[in-house]
């Protein structure tokens, strides 16, 4: 029989192990989400991240090695974003009739998100590159990184802050909007898409198809608006 | 399924090229999203053929965020240094942005008398 250490050193070099681990961790997270009767605090992304982080820690694997395998899953973010075009097409008639409400929600949600995060962070003494990395936190990661870089932020820190925002938004959106007694699926979906990008959109699709479609639109529109608002807000409030 | 994936990747590729060539403020996949809507508008017969695979992708949208999310771990020291401030800033501003966005939507919808959409799940 071959030494288990040799098998490990072989597996830990290839993409197979960490690709499998990523899918398994997600399935466990999804099973926990279903077992909790789809409670928003049992967020499958958060559970999978914690499980994988623990596994990387225990096995002493660095992130670059992990990403060798996980990159195949990461790549699918692009095609999945394109796929959001289908629910948008399905809801085009509703989208047209909701033009003014969407414009209001976009302007209000986006500017409140950017300005409040800068003001709160500044009150805690955060400044410079960290502040610039924080400003586009509600935007989808590739856009946020581009915006942050132009303002002197750090790309990988920006990605981490964007993901934390998405996970937090996905967890709080249902109880928050229930407490505010907002029942319009278009409003609920659009607001979470503007505030918490793709992870919020994934949460919206778990709850309601209309909410998911409007969330995807909110995410797309806010990607454009944040590119304009964030540099201005950083000048005035940063 | 492969045909749908090929179509989606082609649109993403076209989006990526357009975004770079025209230096748009949008990432390639978001341009691809717009191109998919336009494709569906031009060829409505395509919609039912691409629906199964497309919905399959969207059902597991969460999964695709996991690899990047694990990257948070690499930033724990820096995040810990500003831990409280970053946590309060992200939590506070995200709560505010969701609430203000949703309220603005419903206020304007009520003002213009657009019917709300309240059917379906919880």
From TrEMBL, chain A:
Its main location: membrane. GO terms for cellular component: membrane. InterPro entries: CidB/LrgB (IPR007300). It is found in: Membrane. Pfam families: LrgB. It is a multi-pass membrane protein. The chain crosses the membrane at residues 6-29, 41-60, 72-89, 98-121, 157-177, 213-237. Keywords: Membrane, Transmembrane, Transmembrane helix. This is TIGR00659 family protein. The lineage of its organism: Bacteria, Pseudomonadati, Pseudomonadota, Alphaproteobacteria, Rhodobacterales.
Automatic annotation (TrEMBL), chain B:
This is Putative effector of murein hydrolase LrgA, UPF0299 family. GO terms for cellular component: plasma membrane. The keyword Cell membrane applies. It comes from the Bacteria. The chain crosses the membrane at residues 29-46, 58-78, 84-108. Signal peptide: none annotated. Keywords: Cell membrane, Hydrolase, Membrane, Transmembrane, Transmembrane helix. It comes from Paracoccus homiensis. It is found in: Cell membrane. GO terms for molecular function: hydrolase activity. PANTHER family: HOLIN-LIKE PROTEIN CIDA, HOLIN-LIKE PROTEIN CIDA-RELATED. It is a multi-pass membrane protein.
């Amino acid at each position: 029989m071959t030494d288990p250490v040799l098998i490990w050193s072989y597996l830990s070099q290839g993409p197979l192990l960490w690709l499998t681990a990523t899918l398994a961790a997600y399935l466990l997270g999804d099973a926990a989400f279903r077992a909790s009767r789809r409670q928003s605090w049992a967020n499958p992304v958060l559970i999978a991240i914690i499980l994988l982080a623990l596994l990387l820690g225990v096995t002493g694997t660095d992130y670059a090695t992990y990403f060798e395998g996980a990159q195949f899953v990461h790549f699918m973010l692009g095609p999945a974003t394109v796929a959001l075009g289908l629910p948008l097409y399905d809801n085009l008639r509703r989208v047209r009739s909701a033009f003014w409400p969407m414009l209001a929600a976009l302007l209000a949600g986006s500017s409140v998100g950017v300005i409040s995060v800068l003001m709160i962070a500044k009150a805690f003494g955060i400044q410079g590159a960290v502040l610039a990395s924080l400003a586009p936190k509600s935007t989808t990661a590739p856009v946020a990184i581009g915006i942050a870089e132009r303002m002197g932020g750090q790309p990988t820190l920006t990605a981490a802050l964007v993901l934390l925002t998405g996970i937090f938004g996905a967890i709080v959106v249902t109880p928050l909007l229930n407490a505010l007694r907002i029942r319009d699926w278009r409003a609920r979906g659009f607001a979470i898409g503007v505030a918490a990008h793709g992870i919020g959109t994934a949460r919206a699709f778990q709850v309601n198809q209309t909410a998911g479609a409007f969330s995807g639109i909110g995410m797309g529109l806010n990607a454009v608006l944040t590119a304009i608002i964030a540099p201005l807000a950083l000048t005035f409030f940063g | 399924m492969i045909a749908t994936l090929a179509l989606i990747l082609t649109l993403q590729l076209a989006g990526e090229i357009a975004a770079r060539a025209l230096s748009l403020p949008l990432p390639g996949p978001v341009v691809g999203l717009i191109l998919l809507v336009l494709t569906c508008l031009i060829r409505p017969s395509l919609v039912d053929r691409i629906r199964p695979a497309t919905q399959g992708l969207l059902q597991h949208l969460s999964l695709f965020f996991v690899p990047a999310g694990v990257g948070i771990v690499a930033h724990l020291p820096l995040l810990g240094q500003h831990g409280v401030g970053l946590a309060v800033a992200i939590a506070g501003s995200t709560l505010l942005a969701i609430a203000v966005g949703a309220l603005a939507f419903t206020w304007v919808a009520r003002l213009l008398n657009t019917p709300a959409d309240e059917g379906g799940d919880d």
